[in-house]
Amino acid sequence: MGLARSSYYYKGRLDLAKADEDERICIRMEQLALDYPRYGYRRMTAQLKREGFCVNHKRVLRLMREKSLLVRPRKGYVKTTDSKHGLRVYRNYYSGRTFRRINRAWVADITYVRLGGGFCYLAVILDAYSRRVVGWALSRNIDSALVIAALERAIEERDPPKRCIHHSDRGKQYASKEYIKVLRKRKFRISMGRKGNPYDNAQAESFMKTLKAEEVHLAEYASLADAADRIGQFIEDVYNGKRLHSALGYAPPVEFELSLKRSGSTTLIRRQKCPA
């Protein structure tokens, strides 16, 4: 038939080449899974594409399933906020809004972190548009001083404009007179979610879940200072600087904000409305 002998072995060579490529992909996925334990197949696909691998989500899903790298579902939300107080609560100005610039809305939340000899508490503030953590504070006490420290750090870092929305739950720390005084002094538009509804503050809740899964649950902090160092490194270096966010077109928050500045645009991608 006029065919070269090598033609009979062509398919075999393709199979071997594909197997070698799969192996290289799996090795890299295992490395990424160590750095980002909660990466699903979509985010893993985006990261591999950024690094030059020729993959699609079906291939990545198949390889992650074969290597047991798929993320296991976690338990649902557990209520931790104390909203049973006599302090004033504020209208929800955040849910259902679409934000197209940074520093137009901030979201705030608190979580606990286990230490060797007890607990400490972390307060964070995120920009609702870029998902970047703009302020955080850690303390052994869950009080107004903790959330004020995170807020003042965010203000110093970002210098937000007047009428920037500050959204939180109805916890007594955020409703305290001391905290409200700082918000009013800086001309924030105060917003609070519905009682007992974590979905009104979904972006902050999502960050807390990521922090717990990819840092806190994998570590054993010897002291408050140790926790502050390691959590601070995760927030600034990993979450803000490296971790891909599906809502940002699979870019890290710092990279997303830099892209906005370079383009001179108010928005780079179509964004969904904040949860109602």
Relevant terms:
single chain; 276 residues; alpha/beta; Nucleotidyltransferase, domain 5; 2 domains; five-stranded mixed β-sheet; 9 helices; 13% strand; elongated; disordered C terminus
SSE layout and pairing:
Elements: H1 10-35, H2 41-50, H3 57-66, E1 105-115, E2 118-127, E3 133-139, H4 144-158, E4 165-168, H5 172-175, H6 177-185, E5 189-192, H7 202-214, H8 224-239, H9 253-263
Parallel strand pairs: 1-4, 4-5
Antiparallel strand pairs: 1-2, 2-3
Helix pairs in contact: 2-3
Architecture overview:
The protein has 276 residues and is an alpha/beta fold. It folds into two domains: 5-66, no CATH class; 105-263, 2-Layer Sandwich (Nucleotidyltransferase, domain 5). It contains nine helices and five strands; from the N terminus they run αααβββαβααβααα. The protein has a five-stranded mixed sheet, with helices on both faces. α2 crosses α3 (57-66). Mean pLDDT is 84; it is low at 75-80 and 267-276.
Query: On the 0-100 scale, what is the average pLDDT?
Result: 84
What is the CATH T-level topology of the largest domain?
A: Nucleotidyltransferase, domain 5
Instruction: Determine the structural class based on helices, strands and strand pairing.
Output: alpha/beta
Number of strands: 5
Strand content: 5-15%
- Cα-atom radius of gyration: 23 Å
Helix content: 40-55%
User: In one word, what is the shape?
Assistant: elongated
Distance between termini?
69 Å
Low-confidence runs of at least 5 consecutive residues: 75-80, 267-276
Compute the number of helices.
9
| CATH superfamily (homologous) name of the largest domain | Ribonuclease H-like superfamily/Ribonuclease H
Q: What characterizes the major β-sheet?
A: 5 strands, mixed
Q: What CATH architecture of the largest domain do you see?
A: 2-Layer Sandwich
Could you say how many structural domains there are in total? Answer: 2
Q: What are the secondary-structure elements, in order, as H or E?
A: HHHEEEHEHHEHHH
Strand order of the largest sheet: 3-2-1-4-5
**CATH class category name of the largest domain:** Alpha Beta
